[in-house]
Amino acid sequence: MDYAESITTTAGPGRAWAALADVTAYPRWTASMSSVEPLDAPSLAVGNRFRIRQPGLPVTVWRVRELREGASYVWEAHAPGVHTVAYHRVEAEPGGTTRITIGIRQTGLLAGLVALLTSAKTRRYVRLEAAGLKAAAETGDASHPDDDADGR
Questions:
Q1: Where are the alpha helices (DSSP H) in the chain?
Q2: Residue 90's closest CA among 81, 82, 100?
Q3: Closest by alpha carbon to 65, among 56, 77, 74, 57?
Q4: Which among 21, 101, 104, 113 is placed 20 to 30 Å from 2, CA to CA?
Q5: In this structure, what are the phi and psi dihedrals at residue 54, rounded to the nearest 5 degrees?
Q6: What is the CA radius of gyration of the chain?
Q7: What is the pLDDT of residues 57-102, one digit of tens each?
Q8: What three-state secondary structure class fits 39?
Q9: What CA dihedral angle connects 63, 66, 69 and 70, to 10 degrees?
Q10: What is the pLDDT at residue 12?
Q11: What is the dihedral of CA 42, 52, 107, 17, to 10 degrees?
Q12: At what angle do helices 13-21 and 111-138 cross, to 10 degrees?
């Protein structure tokens, strides 16, 4: 099962990344997460784990697998028969906008059954997260400067 959602924001990549990298703040801007609890440290770093509660889904521990500071991160979760990988990217676009992409891939023996049971919710949550991230980036704190020279 693979789902992805891309959305464009007027916020620059620096501001979009600041919102994306502040993973413990996600519940403030998306209804798809009730809580994000750091298990190692609150910062986004390879190896750090976060316990995430989402409405209607089991509590899941995600471990950061890859990090490209300012551009993307990947985290993963394991459950019996299912390996879930979620990726998050921000990319500068021509004209000063930024493309935000959030995606999820599930593999394993039970991935098909999980998809059958949760695909509508998963699609909805990925859309909510992309839209919430866009809003968080566009209303972001001025203490997170953009990469843009004009501070947009």
A1: 13-21, 26-29, 111-138
A2: 100
A3: 74
A4: 21
A5: -130, 140
A6: 15
A7: 999 999 999 999 999 999 999 999 999 999 999 999 988 899 999 9
A8: coil
A9: -90
A10: 93
A11: -50
A12: 130
Note the pLDDT tens digit of each residue in 100-109. 999 999 999 9
Phi, psi for residue 34 in degrees, rounded to 5: -85, -35
The model's pTM: 0.87
Predicted confidence (pLDDT) at residue 147 exceeds the cutoff of 80: no
Q: What average pLDDT does range 9-14 have in this prediction? A: 94
Enter the DSSP assignment of 110.
T
**DSSP structural state of residue 150:** T
Q: Which strands sit side by side in the sheet containing 49-53, from one edge to the other?
A: 2-9, 98-107, 82-92, 72-79, 60-68, 49-53, 35-38
DSSP tag of 108:
S
Name residue, tokens 């866009």.
134
| Residue matched to tokens 């909510």 | 128
Q: Is the per-residue pLDDT at 148 higher than 50?
A: no
